[in-house]
UniProtKB/TrEMBL annotation:
Coiled coil: none annotated. Gene3D superfamilies: Medium-chain alcohol dehydrogenases, catalytic domain (3.90.180.10), NAD(P)-binding Rossmann-like Domain (3.40.50.720). Residues 10-320 form the Enoyl reductase (ER) domain. GO terms for molecular function: oxidoreductase activity. It comes from the Bacteria. This is Zinc-binding dehydrogenase. PANTHER family: ALCOHOL DEHYDROGENASE RELATED, RETICULON-4-INTERACTING PROTEIN 1, MITOCHONDRIAL.
Length: 324
């Protein structure tokens, strides 16, 4: 089968003919139709993501959408011909989705909603799981909660906004002026990202989800409500002073979405989260913003998809299509 292979960090991607895998115990063999491209893929390729523990040579591609080809032993709930999607590999030595077939842990998969195209489905898993783990698993979002999403039109950000709205929260989101319509269209109050947090936070928010990191995470600490405010970040990788948060008697959680793939623990929960995504899509409460450019399974095309992210020319999620 054909696959896109990273042979050395920082080296050009190559297209190779590699052995087609078989579904082992607990696995499903998927005929890949689309592979989502995330900023993490570009960092792995450049050798800038030690936390992803990629082992060379590597087939990248964290997110997948496709059709079940065969099912291994001890797998229930999936059958050949099923349309499935999930966040299934591309890190920690686990084969990614930039190949015609991939054998994946069935616990990571969910059935695709009928209304999603393969391209849309491949764009969803990592960003939705990251949003869910922050808002639901860590911060326990619910009806009546006030939520601030930092970077509300980004990949994780636009999932977090829609998820919080769907669960009944009162949502605000920061973004650039040209992102205002998108943020308001998702049901959130727009806040210009250049406005200092002290000018809009008021008494503070029950939940602040930072998807930007750096100085924005520092500002998020100052936006938390006193006593019961909770800050969540999926990019809390720097050195930060916790005093502004401590002086509010507020709390903080980090999100590391890769952990089930790297450790093998908690994989079934990712499948559960993807089933929640399917329910929200079916109910018309969740949509993914896609970049208009189409990319295919070739070294040049995948490299162009990576450049669209590193050069920030993409407007929405980037997807590589292997089949219609």
């Amino acid at each position: 089968m054909q696959a896109i292979v990273l042979v050395a960090f920082g080296a050009p991607l190559t297209q190779q003919d590699i052995a087609r895998p078989a579904a082992g115990p607990g696995q499903v063999l998927v005929r890949v139709h689309a592979s989502g491209v995330n900023p993490l893929d570009t960092k792995i390729a450049a050798g800038q993501a030690g936390h992803a523990q990629a082992a060379l040579p590597a087939v990248l591609g964290i997110d997948i959408a496709g059709v079940v080809d065969s099912v291994g032993a001890d797998v229930a709930g999936f059958a050949p011909g099923d349309r499935v999607y999930g966040m299934t590999g591309g890190v920690g030595g686990v084969a990614g989705s930039l190949s015609e077939y991939v054998a994946v842990d069935a616990r990571l998969l969910a059935h695709m909603p009928a209304k999603l195209s393969m391209r849309e489905a491949a764009a969803l898993p990592l960003i939705f799981i990251t949003a869910w783990e922050g808002l639901v698993d860590r911060a326990h979002v619910g009806a009546g909660k006030t939520v601030l999403v930092q970077g509300g039109a980004g990949g994780v950000g636009h999932m977090a906004v829609q998820l919080a709205v769907a669960l009944g929260a009162q949502v605000s989101a920061t973004g650039s002026a040209d992102q205002r319509a998108a943020i308001e269209g998702m049901g959130a109050t727009f806040i210009d990202r250049n406005v200092p947090v002290e000018e809009y936070a008021g008494e503070g928010f029950d939940i602040v989800y930072d998807t930007v990191g750096g100085a924005v995470l520092d500002a998020s600490f100052r936006a938390a409500r006193r006593y019961h405010g909770h800050v969540v970040s999926c990019l809390g990788w720097g050195t930060h002073a916790l005093a502004p948060l401590s002086f509010r008697a507020a709390t903080y959680s980090g999100v590391f979405t890769l952990l089930p793939l790297l450790s093998g623990e908690g994989r079934a929960h990712h499948g559960d989260i993807m089933r929640e995504a399917s329910a929200l899509v079916a109910a018309g409460k969740l949509k993914v913003l896609l970049d208009a450019t189409r990319y295919m399974l070739s070294a040049d095309s995948v490299s162009a998809a990576h450049r669209a992210l590193t050069e920030r020319t993409a407007s929405g999620k980037v997807v590589v299509e292997l089949m219609e």
